[in-house]
Amino acid sequence: MSKLFFVNIPYNCSDRELQEWVESRGIETRSIRIVRDLVAGVSPAFGYVELKDDTRIQEAIDVLNGKKMRNQTILVKEAQVQTTGVGQGWERRTA
Length: 95
Prior knowledge:
Blueprint: E1 3-7, H1 15-23, E2 29-34, E3 46-51, H2 57-64, E4 68-69, E5 72-73, E6 75-78
Antiparallel strand pairs: 1-3, 1-6, 2-3, 4-5
């Protein structure tokens, strides 16, 4: 799975607007998720974009990183995959 991590997204940007901005540069997306503060409902200026084509991740970074979106310079890098989680590494034992 190819996921990009976006930083410095404009605070009132919608998932749809980010998708259109990315796709207008020739990069097809599978999903977009801007992380939001659940209480205030605003974005803390970062999010994730999953690409349709796993082989185009470096191209997408080259095309998108450092570009302006509403006077904000967007920073893009490959998202880190979390390899551990709740319950991983634990054995289930029966008495």
